[in-house]
């Protein structure tokens, strides 16, 4: 992950995942749902085809995290970082610390995806609390490892990663709370907002550290550069709140249009009266008899 590409992969994953949740939260609020994700019916009442049983969200987690783990060990081609200890050194020091930290972060999100698949595909009844707990654990591990990841880094890298840890910790806190209180719309919105901030700041980190637009690297010894990091982070808070509001507005327009279409269809097609004493049914029967007699 210590490259531009290594930060882009999780950044894009978190971004699309947060945008997906933004749509889910918006529709849940507009529909007045008690839960953000409605529980699946029992397994025997679902379809029996494999694509109806395998959860797409869990599969995406597994695929993306696996794609992140493999380069940590074997990129660039010819590298092999599977060793944790340098056995040739008499002191037996640990090596590849950063890579193993990244792999551990990816590994817990991989575990969350596996839990989703097992819960939704292999269990008779979906284990929603277990899924939420596994996802919360992944974010807690992310924050914990990030706290040690910044040791012996430059002042600039420390500041950037601390700002990244703020939304990550809030997401972990909200996910932990949702294990016991999943019916709180305020928590849904906060989690989605912080997820958007986390993903956009991770992409900003790529620009700051690997591809600055000015062509000049940021200076860790400059108080102005460090101050503007915090300013830019605050801008991310505002921008992502605006993004969430725009998504909610678009979902609201779509929801109203669908609701009006359903209302028109329901008024156009009325159920046939089945009561024998109904005047409408008697009139229909009379018309049918007259047609049979050629009247």
Ranges where pLDDT stays below 50 over 5 or more residues in a row are: 284-295
Q: Please state the structural category.
A: mainly alpha
Mean pLDDT: 83
H-E string: HHHHHHHHH
- How many DSSP-defined strands? 0
| DSSP helical segment count | 9
Approximate shape = globular
N- and C-termini, Cα separation: 84 Å
Rg calc: 27 Å
Relative strand content: under 5%
Report the helical percentage: over 70%
Biggest sheet statistics: none
Which secondary structure elements does this structure contain, and how are they paired or packed?
Elements: H1 4-31, H2 50-53, H3 56-74, H4 97-122, H5 128-149, H6 155-180, H7 185-210, H8 223-268, H9 279-292
Helix pairs in contact: 1-3, 1-7, 1-8, 3-4, 4-5, 5-6, 6-7, 6-8, 7-8
